Amino acid sequence: MCDDPGKDILEAKERLAALFGDLETYVEFMMKKQEKEMKQGGKKYVDLPIVRVKKPQKPEA
User: Fold this and answer.
1) Range of the domain at 32
2) Which residue, of 5, 16, 29, 32, is most buried by count of CB atoms within 10 Å of its CB?
3) Is residue 60, in this structure, part of any structural domain at all?
4) C-alpha distances out from residue 51 to 17, 45, 47, 48, 54, Å
5) Distance between CA 21 and CA 14 in Å, rounded?
6) What pLDDT is attached to residue 44?
7) Predicted TM-score of the model (pTM)
8) Taking Cα atoms as reference points, which of 36, 7, 35, 10 lies closest to residue 23?
9) Which tens digits make up the pLDDT trace of 28-51?
């Protein structure tokens, strides 16, 4: 790993692009893999909101 996280990200993108041709192909591959696993019942995925919603606190009695 490098000291600069931005450089690490760029290197990872370059490796993925070398394997799959471009990042869109990789994303499609991973989505199909995820859908297949969900259909088989092996893994369950949850779509989490981007912004965390705070739950209201219960009043103390």
Assistant:
1) 5-40
2) 16
3) no
4) 30, 18, 12, 9, 9
5) 10
6) 66
7) 0.41
8) 10
9) 888 888 888 878 776 666 666 677
